[in-house]
UniProtKB/TrEMBL annotation:
<dbReference type="GO" id="GO:0140284">
    <property type="term" value="C:endoplasmic reticulum-endosome membrane contact site"/>
</dbReference>
<protein>
    <recommendedName>
        <fullName>Motile sperm domain-containing protein 2</fullName>
    </recommendedName>
</protein>
<keyword id="KW-0472">Membrane</keyword>
<dbReference type="InterPro" id="IPR036865">
    <property type="entry name" value="CRAL-TRIO_dom_sf"/>
</dbReference>
<feature type="region of interest" description="Disordered">
    <location>
        <begin position="234"/>
        <end position="308"/>
    </location>
</feature>
<dbReference type="InterPro" id="IPR053012">
    <property type="entry name" value="ER-organelle_contact"/>
</dbReference>
<keyword id="KW-1133">Transmembrane helix</keyword>
<dbReference type="InterPro" id="IPR008962">
    <property type="entry name" value="PapD-like_sf"/>
</dbReference>
<keyword id="KW-0812">Transmembrane</keyword>
<dbReference type="GO" id="GO:0012505">
    <property type="term" value="C:endomembrane system"/>
</dbReference>
<dbReference type="InterPro" id="IPR000535">
    <property type="entry name" value="MSP_dom"/>
</dbReference>
<feature type="domain" description="MSP">
    <location>
        <begin position="312"/>
        <end position="427"/>
    </location>
</feature>
<dbReference type="Pfam" id="PF00650">
    <property type="entry name" value="CRAL_TRIO"/>
</dbReference>
<dbReference type="Pfam" id="PF00635">
    <property type="entry name" value="Motile_Sperm"/>
</dbReference>
<feature type="transmembrane region" description="Helical">
    <location>
        <begin position="507"/>
        <end position="531"/>
    </location>
</feature>
<dbReference type="InterPro" id="IPR013783">
    <property type="entry name" value="Ig-like_fold"/>
</dbReference>
<dbReference type="InterPro" id="IPR001251">
    <property type="entry name" value="CRAL-TRIO_dom"/>
</dbReference>
Amino acid sequence: MGVSDAEIKYVRENFEKKYADKISSDTYDERDLRRLRTDNVYATTFIRGPDRLDEGVDLVHESLRFRKEYGVNDLTEDSFDQWVWDKRALFLHNRTNTGHKILYVRVKEHKKDASKILEVKKFFIFWLEMSFRADPLEKVVTFFDMSEAGLSNLDMEFIRFILTCFKLYYPTFLEKLLIYEMPWIFNAAWRVIKTWLSQEALARIKFATKSDIQSYIDKDQLFEHMGGTAKLDEVEYRPTGGGDSAMFSDTSDGRRVTFSDSSDVDGSAHTPTLATSPNANNNASHRVTSPKSSRRDRNASASESGHFTGRLLTISPADELTFVADESGKEPYDVITLTNTLMHPIAFKVKTTAPEKYRVRPSTGVVKPGEAFEVYVYLLPGYMNTVERDKFLVMAMEVTGDTYDVSLWKTAPKDSIMEHRMRCVASNNVDFNVNLAPEGGMSRTHASARGGYKGGGIGQQAAMAASQAKSFLMGKLDTQQLHHPFKRPMSPMEMLIESNNQLRRRMGYLIISHVVFFILTLLFFGAFFCLGEDLFSSYLYFPFGYCVSNSWSRRC
């Protein structure tokens, strides 16, 4: 349930009254005070419910006092010694199957040391704040990886600090706390920790082992030692390396980013497009897309797991759009693939911090269940040198049909909208691409909708020949694919959808086989009840002998 403006106003005004002396005595960071007074989303994070507003007032005091004491607003990568990074004990990486970011705490890498505990606490806050700044309303899952941990790794002070962070300083930011493979020697410590927690807090703590961890985190998001496929040694531990951790600051000077609606020259959310420019994230310059199919392929350098799995949509690429300079002068572009793996339609909207630089086709629309949708983002001429300042925001929400009223974005509750930010990158590494589109044209309707391309049969044959030549030279298609130049390998998400469909069919066959087996079992026991010991010696006469034998009839 959303927080009303009246509730936010109540918390602000009562905080100003109750803690006026603290405000005047410089107890809080002025930046936090300014944010509390002007940012409704930030104020919302202290309100746990309409009947807990006074508690929210006190939480504001506790959080702001803590932030000033620990210098949270001034924490950067350079705030920590190299040994902190070398431990690789704390980091944000991947997401749960519900779309929440995971803050990993690798317990075996932590050793209790009173001389270093303050820096360790600040390091935890650094990662927590990074996720909080990216989206204060997107809750985080804290993951205690206790595999191979021992008593030497037990630090009750640090554990209590983490719990206090979510109780007082980030009171609405914890989704759950996952404890993985806790050794039995920690049972006594757990009994003590439970006494610190309320029933509400205990409900957010979940224990998991290797056998059931995938009920919380999908296999491709799990590390190998937990039964997954992700490699621990490939994690970017520093936030500038990429992924979710790169969202610590929206701009280089720390200013708030404002996203504006992207321009959509077609004005339609359902018009397919034909891409015409080379791009590092696509291995072919020809793309025909529609809401019913998606054939987007990443190049060989792209990661097979390079997608973000949100609670409503799966987005590829995961966190950055790459624009490649084209010597021919055509507009660089990249493609955002939105995949809906749910059972109901999902509306999307794409916004950018620099709408004057980009053309997005389409900028809004609906992704049907089990389908993928491609959004083309074109960079206009003259802006290649400034793209790294720009960001895109992909928004998604549930709708009831294939069409929707765009005004819903203004009235929908904040917590019902999924948001995912992407940064922009410029590149001069031009991939090998053959331009298949007619000059001067960037948008084409889907061939199947009108019986062919507007460019005519000759243009289509030329495009097919060019595509065959490119495929032969690059060695990416086999002989069969050369006769079908537009047949592309399925993307990972398409393969996942197809795998799910196959699993449903197999489950259907399995259920039918179980029903048949059950019926046969009933028949067997029924026959044994009637025939008794004669069943195995006289079964060849059954059911013919059943009708004429008096002994059988009497027995039945």
